Amino acid sequence: MNDFRVIDIEFQDLHDEYNAILVCWSDEPRCTSVAQRVFRKAFKKCLMLRDCTLSSDAGPGSETTLRKLFPKLKSLSLPRDDPSLLIANLNGIAKADGEQLNILVDYSSMPRLWYAAILRWAQTFAGEKRVELDLAYTISDYISEQNFRPLELEDIPAIPGCDGVLDDSNVPILGIFGLGFDGIAASEVLEELEPSTVYAYLADPVPFPEYAERARRENQEILNAQKLLLPLPLCSIRTVYGYLSELAVLSKSTHQVKLIPMGPKPHVVAAILVALRFEDVACLHVAGRREKPESGEPTDKAIVTRVQIRKPSEEVQQRMLRYGRAVI
Amino acid sequence: MDEIRIAVISDLHVGGARSKDLCPYATAGCEVNGSCPYKTKKCVEADFLDRFEQFANEKDLEADYLLILGDATQAGQPDEVYLVCEVIERLRESLGIASERVAFIPGNHDVDWEVLSILDHSGVRFEQRFEPIAYPKWRLKKWMSRSKPKNWLLTVPPYLTVWQDQSIVMVGYNSAWADRDSADVHHGQVDEKHVEELEKWLNDNQKGHERYWVFLTHYHPIQYDNEFPETPDFSIMNGKVRSLLDLLYHKEFDIFLHGHKHRPFLNAPIMHGHPLLVLGAGSFSAPPDMRWDGRNPNSFHIVTLRGRKPLFDSGECAFGEVRSWAYYRPEGWIPSQRGWGIRFKEPFGTYLSHDDLKRQLCSTIEESVSKSGKAIWSSMVAEEQDFAFVMRDDLDKVLQDLCSEKGWSIMRKDEDFIVLPGKDAERDR
Amino acid sequence: MLNVTGEHSRRPPKLFSVGEAGRYSREELVQTFVPTDTYRQLLTIGNQIILGSRGSGKTTLTKMLAHEYMAASDDRDIKDLIAERTFLGIYVATGTSWVGALRNKGWLEDSPEAEHEFQWRVNLSVCFSFLRTLRSCIATYCPEEQKYELERDIVTEIREVWGCPRNPVSSLDDLHRCLRSIEGTGRSHSGLGDSTNVEQAKGGSVFDRDLFMPLLHAMEVADSLLSLPETPHWVLCIDEAEFLTTTHHRILNSYMRSGASKLCFKITTLPYHHADCETNLGVPIVPTDDFDYVYIDKDPVMAYSNKRPEESGARCPDFVTSMFHKRASASNYEFEHISLHALLGDSLLLDEPSGFADTEFLAELQSLATEKTYERAQRLYQESRPEYYDQIKRKLSGAILLKKRLMEQRPGSKLDIYSGEKMFIRCSDYSPRRIVQLLGSLLEAIDYQLPTEQESAETPFIKEVVQNEVLEIFSERTLKRAQSVRGVGPLRAGRVGRNLYTLLKLVGRYMKQRFREEKLTTDPIFSIEVPSNVPPGFARLVKIAVAYGFLYPHVKEKDPDPLPRIGEEKAALHFAYALAPYFQLNPRRGKGRNLLSVLGQNHAERLGRGEDDQLQLFGLEGAI
Predict the structure, then answer these.
(1) CB-based contact A267:A261 (threshold 8 Å)
(2) Which pTM does this prediction carry?
(3) How crowded is the C-beta side of A73, counted as CA atoms within 13 Å?
(4) Beta-sheet pairing, A158-163 with A173-178
(5) Residues of B numbered 345-384 whose beta carbons fall under 8 angstroms of chain C's beta carbons: which are they?
(6) Residue C383: what pLDDT?
(7) B70: which residues sit within 8 A by CB, 6+ positions away?
(8) What are phi and psi of A257, to 5 degrees?
């Protein structure tokens, strides 16, 4: 039972020193954007994560650039679905002195299971120190319909640590869908999960107004099924986190709440935070592959979010339980 | 005594609320074009007030008084104050409440932060901080001081005012009088002189208890559970809080209402042999804030005072119930739940010690079980009306103890429940 | 016209847009349920594995086997069973997230830890469901004045066997909370690889021991206190077993082989997703001995056939009509005077060709059919009119009409040929989900403005052109959905969607081209034959196509296992009729064309056009 404080900040609010920075090399051009803005700060450790299945020659976001920016850079090659090496490194970082850990994470190009694992680690670890994660995301250009390849669905597991409650066939499911452009995959998830109630949210307002219109267009089946459609801003994870939490908390005594974020990464982060915070809420990962991954040009807009995690003492947790912390 | 219903809201934060209809700055695209003065605020909704009106209409809700316990605005700006007046008008109309029965107490956000941010060593700007909410042409000023002793205004020392009619006396105190926008922590302040003034007035004017006595202020008087003791909650009232509370208890006030903490709260601490029902109203319309494990939805309450009844060996106390609703975007206003702060219906008025309540309940249940093999709560209440006004948490604790000791079983059905002798008892025999 | 919704609805009413049973409340499901012969076949004590493609109604059927649903039904047979206490169904679903959570533990699929975890989860899940059934039993069988005491007595006994604390557990709600608490303590901190705390937390719990043991103990308590009969009567209905792995199936199979006779199973899964019949006991389960397969997909051709109505498992067309009326009633539409036929009329392609004179027909046949077919038609016309009618005219009138319409179609003009009640039912493939979706689309096309009694006399109320458009959009959407299909359970392995979509498009286009270019015969182009020597990856793709209702096998009625063994024997399958409007085909079953020949021909053509990349993905070279 942790306290999450989610704060929207700007680049100028970042600290001058961090215990570590985590960047992710990929073939997306924006994978170096945050690094180029923050490389002058002091980082005790610099970790570059890379997907071990990607070719080293792919894309302009190259290791060379990152190594120039961070001479102490350590490279970690991981499979997309197994972050255990990453966790081991985070455990090493956590051994640093001090009561608080500050870590900067650029998740712009990071696979979902990795940044989910980082958040999960921070939550699990928070009992020993206060953990502050600064999460940065570079917004890339809008990808036109011609260049967009639909997601081929492979699996719909819960993100590890965000399993929610054991499926109880007798408790209706509330599916909260974050809408992106993969309407067909979303419809498939809707058919498989069979939620009795559907809520939906989408990024609006966004820097590209046509985004919201297209998300609506692509997700007609979800929109036909929903009882609530919330436009939530792209640039404020705090707002998204607040609204999703409210939906989850006020429903979870009567429903199995399942978050299905299929929209932009900042919204996915908000959904994961909700599921980590409320252990009876699940966050699902609509996993698949695209023939050609999305890769727009980076803009100068970024979303920076501070997540502070604290864990109350055992004694206080017992007292909080008196107020009826809800588990279905 | 008359039965009266008091609608209670707090912390609207107009200007920084969750919905565009509670924001004077809302324009098309304001979330992205930088025109919103509160950069961290992102309005997601636009029909909050409409939905409240629809809710009040559908449930046929009515009340006799409307109390707003501070932080009606986000930063005490004129545009926000103007809109607050419109909002309160709509709320009171939807509840069928006369304008003269509306009362407003300022909170820390209701001071003019723009004015306070102007560099000033003379103290003039500090004096000007209440000008928007006290603007004479706007109704908010009237709602701050409809009936009062001479010279008493919430915006000048002793920062007290009184609203009263034949049924009720409501004493309001502006505990935010010392707060500034630049403070690191916003905490209320109680000054000794203000308490003395209040005491004097009460000594002169409180003649018996034919009316209900209600105290309103913005800040909370007691420390709530703080999950992080290493960073204590400084936002309670500081100063002569103890003196104030002693006074209220000695003068047998019935209810203490406050806002500030966006978390609904209800309790009835007993001091000096008298219970004081404390209702923290939470926030009516601030954006969702997921501290405290979700126990802080937007809230609206109606306190129904049904009368006064004997208390202990001597004395009396008010009894009745508090009904609370939580705002849930998909469905609007829904009955609140215990896990969110306050139950939907919470009775108050019967204050027995744990042991006394246990003894009485045990005796009643045993008698009923011996006659009919079970004890039904609604029947018990019909026979002994005092049971109806036991606060639910107290009742639950006692029942749990009794079931544990006697091996009884409790079967719940909606708001009623049945107590049965346990099968264990039969088996053990 | 009646505007029954009172205003223009922007979204369709739930009962005419939501096809997934899991999204219905109990009341909605019971209100809209249409009991069929297949359903009544399931109301027996005995293990059954229920095979049906996606949307065929498996969840509805299994939920309607649960006591709480049956007790709410008005059907006489169901009420009798409930009164006799001889069929007490417990419904539990092992859905996608259920199984996903198992994978998140990070253990290898066949490891003892994984099996252990599965067993623990199954035990907990069935106990949750059992409480619901128990509540229904108490409400049904116990006099009102004794309900609370009985609940107390049952809970007191069950909490002992489940290891719940004495206090405060005294009601079914308390037991439910106790199970939640057991689940909570057993939840691991996985994802980071740490499972040791889990085992310590769960160790010693009764849910940790033998499969179904907690359920069996609880059943004994209920049997005794509810005075249930001696004969077996508990039925565990496990839904969505397609997500379970081979290992999970073997665990369940083992129980079916050797388990207590007190409990029988109804397990639903997709075709080809009952992994195998192996057990952990060295002896497999055997169809007809240990269980029966029940295949619930119905071919609307067979079901609607005038020739063999007794073979209809659904009393068609009553089933579809009943679905429509029940949903309309539950949606508060006033409709008694409205039939589907009044709304949709006859089908130009599928109904008896009343307006097609023989002379005209034969003339068209001469120009559009093969010489052999024409000669045969002429001969039969002379020798035996009934045979001429049944073997030639009935089969070819629609095809001729379709061909002519397609040939005459001007650019931009709209067809009206895919219309009529029979066409609508045919294109639904008799899948309840598709029926609901189609009903919803049709009603939406007329803005839910149903005809008055006078207006309904003008048949069809919904114009053919409108119906055609609805069916075409529905057909295209059905095809597009193939892109997001994935392999699950025993057929799980990587991406499937695009390959499946490509396969369907290639086959569909082939058929479309053949129909347009070739002369007609009485054998329509709508079926394929999969030879026995196809590569395993390809066979898997075909099985997935069957599971998701894109292809339908010609079943072996007399065989205990009705589905052809794709990849092991020659298998005939027809295209889903839902795809007919998109590819402009006549939806009639026919003899199958060899699939490899179909693709081979296509391959040649596509190679000629330089489009060989899709063939590689398609897997003929074993790339799947």
Answers:
(1) yes
(2) 0.89
(3) 21
(4) unpaired
(5) 373-374
(6) 92
(7) B10, B11, B105, B106, B107, B108, B109, B110, B176, B217, B218, B259, B260
(8) -95, 125
